[in-house]
């Protein structure tokens, strides 16, 4: 579907200056979404233009209900856009697929399968031979620190370990873009910090490209190189911040102690706050 | 509380529940005995004593009543129930699963199903006679009807009740829709599916007695009905007690299967 120029809203942000030589992994062109309700049509997302480049770690932040999760689900192919195009690796996509795996807030591990069964699932569905599957599962479980729990069922694991398993299930597929929908939202505060540091390490080691939906500005500043702030419903891109320092080399508490971290966090938060207070 | 303590407490609770249950059953039997043989309050033609019923049961295992021993009548009923339950499962299980999985199937099937659901199985007897006459087929038909509703409903609810996020996760990992159903949704639905099988078997068993009104010449329901016309309340109660006992055996048996197949679930507290 060609991009309808009239619906494409020019965005205020500078889209990745100096990054254009990198490969575009995911591109939203005028993607918008509206719902039919009893009170008529409700626009959830204004047309969004956004390009995710190879190696990007992008956060989508914004007030509740601004449509950031919807945008992620559209990218995953699990929800249909009302218009616009999503290009995955240059080609328009319609179906969900393992090139755009999702890590969900509620983990969504398959309860009847062991950790190995869960991590192996996508490989099995895409026809990877058994010997290669076993090797890749072993390696990935090692990477997330779950080697000792290969035969455990999800309900036998703590929340943090369940999220490790869910992460392993996605990264074993080596997705072009890893989509994360508030992946730490269901974890307690201590576990969340440990998992943020783990994600940072794994993303660096594997050179992952990530699109992350989060409520936490702190998390966005710590993990990401680009932070997209969305407006209140209907969601549109309000501003894009570029994170110049790579904080993810530090631990979370070290990073937070740096003056640059705090000032960026405040700047981004003020942008988010404006949107939250605009509707209240 | 440690795991061991918790288990001990659970065992104590279970032992207590079992002993209270046993005590109430024995008390009822005692009351029955007192009002019949014990104090002679009611005539044995109105309610025979437990001793007479038990003696009759033993005798029935060896001597024919209306053409067959206890075992013969038992198998006559069991055969009808087994066929009806199985046929109902072959129809109801896939239908319920399809309704739970596909909105299109649900839209087409639901109105018809909702209309049929409230009709009690016994109300199908006239139609069964019209279609099949008085015979085994008519009885199987009525039993099938009684079992098909819980098969469909529970299979539907089993599939519809599986967290939608699991199917999304599966699609996102590259599984097509049908494999998602087979690999993720159905395994998670198994405990509820077996629950449906259990309720269907219970319904079938209760209905077989009514179905044996339809020109049966053997079966526990036939024995109970026949005992009334031959003024033989001993054997009537033997048949009724056996119907009750077997109902419990079926139900508890399938409950065990249900538990076995839910090993991946958190153990119920």
Give the averaged pLDDT of chain A, no decimals. 88
Percentage of residues in DSSP E strands of chain A: 15-25%
First and last CA, distance of chain A: 37 Å
- Using the CA coordinates, give the radius of gyration of chain B: 23 Å
Listing every helix as H and every strand as E from the N terminus to the C terminus, the arrangement of chain A reads EEEHEEEHHHEHEHEEHH
* Radius of gyration of chain A over all CA atoms, rounded: 19 Å
Class inferred from helices and paired strands of chain B: mainly alpha
Low-pLDDT stretches of chain B are none
In round numbers, the mean pLDDT of chain B is 89
The counted number of beta strands of chain B is 0
Q: Name the strands of the widest sheet of chain A in spatial order.
A: 6-7-8-3-9-10
- Provide the helix percentage of chain A: 25-40%
Total separate domains of chain B: 2
Oligomer: heterodimer
> Which class best fits the helix and strand makeup of chain A?
alpha/beta
Biggest β-sheet strands, sense, barrel of chain B? none
Q: What is the CATH architecture descriptor of the largest domain in chain B?
A: Orthogonal Bundle
Following the backbone from N to C, one meets helices and strands of chain B in this order, namely HHHHHHHHHH
CATH superfamily of the largest domain in chain B: MetI-like
CATH fold-level assignment of the largest domain in chain B: MetI-like fold
Main location (chain B): membrane
Family (chain B): Belongs to the binding-protein-dependent transport system permease family.
Subcellular location (chain B): Cell membrane
Protein name (chain B): ABC transporter permease
If you had to describe this structure to a student in words, what would you say it looks like?
- The complex is a heterodimer of chains A (about 280) and B (about 270).
- Chain A is an alpha/beta fold.
- Chain A is built from 8 helices and 10 strands.
- Chain A has helices at about 70-75, 115-125, 130-145, 160-170, 190-205, 215-225, 250-255, 260-280, and strands at about 25-35, 40-55, 55-60, 85-90, 90, 100-105, 180, 210-215, 225-230, 235-240.
- Chain A has a 6-stranded mixed β-sheet with strand order 6-7-8-3-9-10, sandwiched between helices. Chain A has a 4-stranded antiparallel β-sheet with strand order 2-1-4-5, covered by helices on one side.
- In chain A, β9 and β10 form a beta hairpin.
- In chain A, α6 (about 215-225) packs across α8.
- Chain A starts with about 25 loop residues before the first strand and ends with a helix.
- The relative contact order of chain A is 0.17.
- Chain B folds into 2 domains: about 1-40; about 45-260, MetI-like fold.
- Helices cover about 80% and strands about 0% of the residues of chain B.
- Chain B has 10 helices and no strands.
- The two termini of chain B are about 15 Å apart.
- The mean pLDDT of chain B is about 90.
- The chains are: A alpha/beta (about 280), B mainly alpha (about 270).
- The interface of A and B includes residues 106, 122 and 155 of A.
- Chain B: It is found in: Cell membrane.
- Chain B: It holds the Pfam family BPD_transp_1.
């Amino acid at each position: 579907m060609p991009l309808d120029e009239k619906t494409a809203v020019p965005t205020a942000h500078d889209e990745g200056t100096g990054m254009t030589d990198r490969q575009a992994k995911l591109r939203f062109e005028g993607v918008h979404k509206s719902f039919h309700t009893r009170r008529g049509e409700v626009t959830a997302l204004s047309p969004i233009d956004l390009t995710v480049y190879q190696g990007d770690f992008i956060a989508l932040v914004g007030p509740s209900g601004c449509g950031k999760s919807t945008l992620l689900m559209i990218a995953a192919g699990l929800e249909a856009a009302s218009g616009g195009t999503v290009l995955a690796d240059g080609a328009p996509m319609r179906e969900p697929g393992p090139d755009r795996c999702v890590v969900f807030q509620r983990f969504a591990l398959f309860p009847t399968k062991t950790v190995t069964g869960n991590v192996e699932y996508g490989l099995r569905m895409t026809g990877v031979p058994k010997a290669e599957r076993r090797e890749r599962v072993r390696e990935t479980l090692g990477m997330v620190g779950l080697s000792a729990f290969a035969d455990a069922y999800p309900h036998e694991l703590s929340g943090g370990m369940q999220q490790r398993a869910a992460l392993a299930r996605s990264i074993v597929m080596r997705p072009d873009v890893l989509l994360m929908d508030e992946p730490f939202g269901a974890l307690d505060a201590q576990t969340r910090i440990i998992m943020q540091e783990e994600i940072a390490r794994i993303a660096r080691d594997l050179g992952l490209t990530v699109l992350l939906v989060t409520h936490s500005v702190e998390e966005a500043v710590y993990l990401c190189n680009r932070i997209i702030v969305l407006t209140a419903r209907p969601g549109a891109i309000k501003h894009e911040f570029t994170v110049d320092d790579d904080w993810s080399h530090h631990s979370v508490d070290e990073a937070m102690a740096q003056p640059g971290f705090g000032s960026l966090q405040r700047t981004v938060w003020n942008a988010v706050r404006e949107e939250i207070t605009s509707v209240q | 509380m440690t795991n061991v303590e918790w288990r001990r407490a659970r065992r104590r609770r279970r032992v207590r529940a079992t002993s209270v249950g046993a005590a109430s059953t024995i008390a009822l039997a005692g009351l029955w005995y007192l009002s019949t043989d014990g104090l002679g309050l009611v005539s044995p033609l109105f309610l025979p004593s437990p001793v007479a019923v038990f003696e009759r049961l033993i005798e029935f295992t060896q001597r024919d009543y209306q053409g067959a021993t206890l075992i013969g009548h038992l198998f006559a009923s069991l055969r009808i129930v087994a066929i009806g339950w199985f046929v109902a499962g072959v129809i109801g299980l896939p239908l319920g699963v399809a309704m739970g999985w596909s909105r299109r199937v649900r839209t087409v099937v639901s109105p018809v199903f909702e209309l049929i659901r409230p009709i009690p199985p016994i109300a199908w007897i006239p139609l069964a006679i019209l279609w099949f006459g008085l015979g085994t087929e008519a009885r199987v038909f009525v039993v099938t009807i009684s079992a098909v509703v819980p098969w469909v409903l529970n299979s539907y609810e089993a599939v519809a009740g599986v967290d939608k996020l699991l199917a999304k996760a599966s699609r996102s990992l590259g599984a097509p829709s049908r494999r998602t159903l087979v690999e993720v949704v159905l395994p998670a639905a198994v405990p509820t599916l077996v629950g449906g099988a259990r309720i269907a078997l219970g319904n079938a068993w209760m209905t077989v007695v009514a179905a044996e009104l339809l020109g049966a010449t053997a079966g526990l329901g036939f024995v109970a009905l026949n005992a009334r016309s031959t003024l033989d309340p001993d054997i009537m109660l033997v048949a009724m007690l056996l119907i009750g006992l077997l109902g419990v055996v079926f139900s508890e048996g399938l409950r065990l299967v249900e538990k076995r197949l839910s090993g991946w679930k958190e153990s119920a507290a």
